[in-house]
């Protein structure tokens, strides 16, 4: 079975073809980061318009890279949510138009399920069950994953997502958008211990997170700083921010593993690309003989491959999930546990 994946939930347009026999046949991505940089964040209307511009060339590219004809596609999977409504509508309407024109069934995929399953696309995929940390611009969640569609939420952020805290703190420091990679690079030059920032909910005895206080702590340091914040001080603050963030994420992951009795940890979402987080997780896991799995770097942030893959996994379990009903809807807000298939 060959599934076309279409991703357009935020500021990346992604297309991919996944074959359940041969694996990933082709994937193509266009990132709108350069366009949004000027505004310091994603402008939803510009994002929607750009998805319209990028979609068809990317579709042609995956077809030509894979060497298959459009008729060889068995089903079309598109990101139905969560995400920006206008941006989601572009991918959904393209999937619907293609489905109708080619007479192929389509199905809506949950963006976070795409992220969650993305480490299974790597050359060293984890086996089920595992604990998953989803850390993106919009979400921070710990999930217990027993199999495809069998997800239990262990805890989540009560306010800002980890990526959002990175992005907002980077803005406060005058670093570019997206803030995650910018803070991470800057932190490498920082002096550890030059600033102390809070570790929100580190000892909360549950698996919830809260990052808005950490961002506010960065704001307070910047506000109280005499004169302009020099480059070295920016690096020191970035370092303190990353250290606080990593300590909380690592501690919560370790206690979720202990609580569930699981030995495997899977990291997904854009913040999973973070170097310091990976180092922290690897060190903590090695001490306790846990294994940590990451998606390939190119599949950490949004992409079409994870949507094609999640769609294919769903269809293997429930072939009737794809329909030739080309009316579509998007779900800008959509909790992941609502799609869970009961065990
Ligand atoms: O998963 P993603 O591409 O989109 C969402 O679904 O949100 O994640 C984007 C987020 C942004 O907040 C970005 O700053 C963050 O991931 N990010 C990083 C890194 N690369 C991307 N955060 C920390 N370190 C990175 N290297
Ligand atoms: Zn995402």
- What is the averaged pLDDT score? 96
The CATH topology label of the largest domain is Nucleotidyltransferase, domain 5
Terminal CA distance reads 25 Å
Describe the main β-sheet briefly.
5 strands, mixed
Strand content: 15-25%
Total separate domains = 2
Helix-strand pattern: EEEHHEHEHEEEHHHHEHEH
- The count of strands amounts to 10
Helix fraction by DSSP (H/I, runs of at least 4)? 40-55%
Q: What is the second-level CATH architecture of the largest domain?
A: 2-Layer Sandwich
Q: Give the class from helix and strand content and strand pairing.
A: alpha/beta
Number of helices: 10
The level-1 CATH class of the largest domain: Alpha Beta
- What small molecules accompany the polymer chains? 5'-O-[(R)-(carboxyoxy)(hydroxy)phosphoryl]adenosine, zinc ion
- The parts where pLDDT drops under 50 for at least 5 residues are none
What is the approximate shape?
globular
Side-by-side strand order of the widest sheet: 3-2-1-4-5
The CATH superfamily of the largest domain appears as ATPase, nucleotide binding domain
Radius of gyration: 20 Å
Layout of strands and helices, then pairs:
Layout: E1 2-7, E2 12-19, E3 23-31, H1 33-37, H2 44-66, E4 75-81, H3 85-102, E5 106-110, H4 111-117, E6 130-135, E7 140-147, E8 150-156, H5 162-172, H6 179-187, H7 212-224, H8 231-260, E9 264-268, H9 275-288, E10 291-293, H10 305-317
Parallel strand pairs: 1-4, 4-5, 6-9, 9-10
Antiparallel strand pairs: 1-2, 2-3, 6-7, 7-8
This protein binds 5'-O-[(R)-(carboxyoxy)(hydroxy)phosphoryl]adenosine and zinc ion (ZN).
């Amino acid at each position: 079975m060959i599934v076309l994946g279409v991703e357009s939930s935020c500021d990346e347009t992604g297309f991919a073809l996944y074959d359940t026999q041969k694996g990933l046949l082709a994937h193509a991505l266009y990132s709108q980061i350069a366009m949004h940089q000027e505004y310091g964040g994603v402008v939803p209307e510009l994002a929607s318009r750009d998805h319209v511009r990028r979609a068809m060339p990317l579709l042609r590219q995956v077809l030509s890279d894979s060497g298959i004809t459009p008729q060889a596609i068995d089903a079309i999977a598109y990101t139905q949510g969560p995400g920006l409504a206008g941006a989601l509508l572009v991918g959904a309407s393209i999937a619907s138009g293609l489905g109708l024109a080619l007479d192929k069934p389509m199905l809506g995929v949950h963006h976070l399920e795409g992220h969650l399953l993305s480490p299974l696309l790597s050359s060293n995929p984890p086996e089920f069950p595992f604990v998953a940390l989803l850390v993106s611009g919009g979400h921070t969640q710990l999930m217990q994953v027993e199999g495809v569609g069998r997800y239990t939420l262990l805890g989540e952020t009560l306010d800002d997502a980890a990526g959002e805290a990175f992005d907002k703190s980077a803005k406060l420091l005058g670093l570019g958008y997206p803030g995650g990679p910018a803070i991470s690079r800057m932190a490498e030059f920082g002096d550890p211990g030059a600033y102390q920032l809070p570790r929100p909910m580190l000892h909360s005895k549950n698996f919830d997170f809260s990052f808005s206080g950490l961002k506010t702590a960065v704001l307070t340091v910047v506000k109280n700083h005499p004169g302009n914040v020099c480059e070295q001080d920016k690096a020191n603050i970035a370092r303190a921010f990353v250290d606080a963030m990593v300590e909380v994420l690592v501690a919560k992951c370790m206690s979720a593993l202990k609580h569930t009795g699981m030995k495997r940890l899977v990291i997904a979402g854009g913040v999973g690309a973070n170097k310091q987080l990976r180092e922290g997780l690897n060190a903590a896991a090695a001490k306790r003989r846990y294994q940590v799995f990451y998606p390939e770097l190119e599949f950490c942030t949004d992409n079409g491959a994870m949507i094609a893959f999640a769609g294919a996994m769903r269809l293997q379990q429930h072939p009737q999930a794809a329909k030739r009903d080309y009316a579509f809807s998007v779900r800008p807000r959509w909790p992941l546990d609502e799609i869970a298939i009961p065990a």
